[in-house]
Every structure is written in structure tokens, then in C-alpha cells.
Amino acid sequence: MKNLSTDHSKTVQGIFRDYQEQLSLCLTDIKKVINLLDMPMVISGDEQQLSEKLTLANKIIAQTTQRLEKLEQQGQLLRGQPHLTELESYRETRELLAYQLEKVREKTQEWQYSA
């Protein structure tokens, strides 16, 4: 019986570590998009350069959205684990990242429509 408990604990800890890593990657990706959008263009008004920048930004946004969805699923698996009190603060962080990602997505769409 103790083996099952130990295995379950290892599984939960693995999911939690992955959750933390994915959260960190989301933050890094959002920073990448913000830096990409803030980066000055080499040739002002170059539509191809703007298009490439927006394509890359949209790719990163899509990837980050998938990560945030995975985090939501992992959070569901981890709920109810009494020893994971940090999960609540991570859930709040995930929600803030999702909000920030939505703002970045809106800004990217504004650029696309103005291009």
C-alpha cells in the first residue's frame, strides 16, 4: 500500500514540476513577443519585415496559448492535493499570464489591421 502512495506522490510531484516549467516558458514566450513587437524595424515601412514579425509573434502566441491550456489541465489534476499549497498562487500567475497574452494578441491584431 505504501508503494502506491509513494508512486502517486512521485507522479504528482512530476506533474507539479512540469507545471512550474511550463509556467516559466509561458512568461519567457510572452516577453519574447513583447520584445519582438517593440523591436524597431530596420527599414521603416517595410511591409515584408512587418509581416514576418507578425507571423513570428502569432506563432509564439499560439504556442503559449497551448501551454496555458495544458497548464489548466494540469491544474485540474493537481487540485485537491493538500501538500501543494503553492498551486493557488501558480493558478493566479497562470491567469495573469493568460491576461497578458490576450493583451499582446490584441496588440498584434492591431498591427495586422494597420499593415
Describe what this molecule looks like in 3D:
The protein is mostly helical and 115 residues long. The protein has one domain. It has helices at 2-38, 47-78, 86-114. It is elongated and about 60 Å long. 10% of the residues are buried. The mean pLDDT is 81.
Describe the secondary-structure layout.
Elements: H1 2-38, H2 47-78, H3 86-114
Helix pairs in contact: 1-2, 1-3, 2-3
Keywords: Coiled coil
Coiled coil: 54-107
- Helix count from the secondary structure assignment: 3
Question: Mean pLDDT, nearest integer?
Answer: 81
Strand content: under 5%
Biggest sheet architecture: none
Q: What is the H/E order?
A: HHH
How far apart are the first and last residues' alpha carbons, in Å?
63 Å
Shape: elongated
The proportion of residues forming helix, as a percent range, comes to over 70%
Question: Which key features would you list for this structure?
Answer:
single chain, 115 residues, mainly alpha, elongated
Brief synopsis:
The protein has 115 residues and is mostly helical. Helix content is 85%, strand content 0%. Residues 54-107 form a coiled coil.
